[in-house]
Structure formats: structure tokens, C-alpha cells
Amino acid sequence: MPNTPKMEIVRAERDNLLALCKQLSPEEWSAPSDCAGWTVQDVIAHLASIAHGGLVPWQLAKGKTGDEINEKMVAARRGRSSAEILREFELWTGRFVKAVGFLQLPVLRDIPVPLPGIGRYPIGMLANSTVFDVYLHMRYDILTPVGPVDRRVPEPPAGAVETILEWIRLGLPQMCREKLLWLKDPVVLELTGPEGAVWRVQPRPGRIAEVIRDDSAMAPARITTRADDFIVWSTRRRDWREFTVKLEGEIAERFCDSVHIV
């Protein structure tokens, strides 16, 4: 399995969450998470089901959209104990991480694959999506101050934010396709911080928009926000107005309201 920096981040985040799960009390397992309608146990069941479903593809036929699949897989596990959910999470995420590692091989990583409800991506980007899921669910749905579990928040591995941003960059035009049909002019997103980036969101008539890395990008509208804040508000875990976001141009506010990464 290729031992790339990206895979080191995947393993570190998975291990951080596994260590947290092994410390949870029965009350913490059953506490409501910040994911509407889901307990902490449901969130871990969701992550276990992604790993299990990714390696047993017939499971992905159980729903038409990503949300439908997620809800069905979590519902199917609600009769299980926290110990059973933890065993599934540990076993299948371990296997999934190994499989995703092989997908980083140059001969494989650029093969496009459809992901239900969210578009088509190079298969190597499953590593990025894994970091995205674990980073957000652990830090913003389970752990305080947002979630119910009061534990030390693990420091993200170096490169985690950059890895997540690359997933969002490819996902934004696909996940927000309908919401951005109104967009006629380009928008610059300046994501600040050590692992930030500058993107130009370029509309394309009759096609989905394109999000291009461009440090010198200019456009009629510009949005400046911290990269780690953007990860949170782009997923609508919090409204962008709760963060320090600088808007320039008439369409900047409407653009922020149109972004929803899932």
C-alpha cells in the first residue's frame, strides 16, 4: 500500500476517532449529536456503514441519493449495541483505509467513479472524502463545544485542511449544481490560513461550473474567509454569518447562501 502523506492523514484521523470511541460511556454513545436526529452512536454507525458499503458495493444500491443511503444504513443498525457498532467501525474502517491506500497508485487514482447523489470523482479522492467525513463528524458533531462529548479535541494532522479543501473544490460545482444555476459571473474564494487556497468559481453556460486554483484570480465578486471556517459553514453546520467573512461584490452574499457541501 502506498505510504503517501495523504494516507498518513487518513490513518491519523481514523485512529483519532477510534481512540475517542473506545473512551465513550454508555451515556455518551446515546447522547444526541449535532447531526439532526442522530445520536453519537448513529454518527459512528454512519461512518462504519460508509466503510462497509464502500467494500461491499451492493449496499450502495439501497438508496437513490446520498442522504437516503446514509439514513437507511444508519436505521438498519439502530438495534445494535454500541459495542457492536464499535467493532464494525474498527474492522471495516481498517479494511477501507487499506483499500483506499491501494487506490492512490498512479495507475488507479484518476479513474472516475460515480458517488450516489454527489457526482463523479477520481477514485483516489476517496481518501480526501474520508478525511472530510471523519474531521467534521468528530470535531463538530460529536465533540464539544458543538457536540455533546466533552473530551480534548485532537489537533488535526498537518495537511488535513488542505486535503479536505481539495475534496470540496471538486465537490462544490457538483453538489451545488442546481443552487448555482443563477451564477453568470466568476467568483473568487480566498481561503486564508496555513493550508488555505485561492479559487476561482467559473460558470460555464450549459455545463456545471468549474472551480480552479488560481492565486492571482480576479472576479466581480470576492469572498474571504478562513479555510477551516469555510469547511464548517460550507457544510451548513453553521451559518456563514456566524464567522468572519469578507464579502466584495453584489453577488457574494447570494453565493454564500447557495453553497452546501454534503
Kindly describe this structure:
- This protein is an alpha+beta fold and 262 residues long.
- It has 2 domains: 5-157, dinb family like domain (Four Helix Bundle (Hemerythrin (Met), subunit A), Up-down Bundle), CATH 1.20.120.450; 173-258, Nonspecific Lipid-transfer Protein, Chain A, CATH 3.30.1050.10.
- The longest helix has 21 residues, at 82-102.
- The model has no long low-confidence stretch (mean pLDDT 93).
- Strand 3 (187-192) and strand 4 (197-204) form a beta hairpin.
- The strands form 2 sheets. A 5-stranded mixed sheet has the order 5-4-3-6-7. Strands 1-2 form a two-stranded antiparallel ribbon.
- The protein contains 9 helices and 7 strands.
- This is Maleylpyruvate isomerase family mycothiol-dependent enzyme.
Please give the count of helices: 9
Q: What is the H/E order?
A: HHHHHEEHHEEEEHEH
Give the total of domains: 2
> What's the end-to-end separation, in Å?
29 Å
CATH architecture of the largest domain: Up-down Bundle
The strand line-up of the biggest sheet is 5-4-3-6-7
What is the helical fraction, as a range of percent? 40-55%
- Oligomer state equals single chain
Beta-strand fraction estimate: 5-15%
Given the helix and strand composition, which structural class is it? Answer: alpha+beta
Please summarize the sheet with the most strands. 5 strands, mixed
Low-confidence runs: none
By CATH, the topology of the largest domain is Four Helix Bundle (Hemerythrin (Met), subunit A)
CATH class category name of the largest domain? Mainly Alpha
**CATH homologous superfamily placement of the largest domain:** dinb family like domain
| Radius of gyration computed on alpha carbons | 18 Å
Mean pLDDT: 93
Protein name: Maleylpyruvate isomerase family mycothiol-dependent enzyme
InterPro entries: DinB/YfiT-like, Maleyloyr_isom, MDMPI_metal-binding
Pfam family, one: MDMPI_N
GO molecular function, one term: isomerase activity
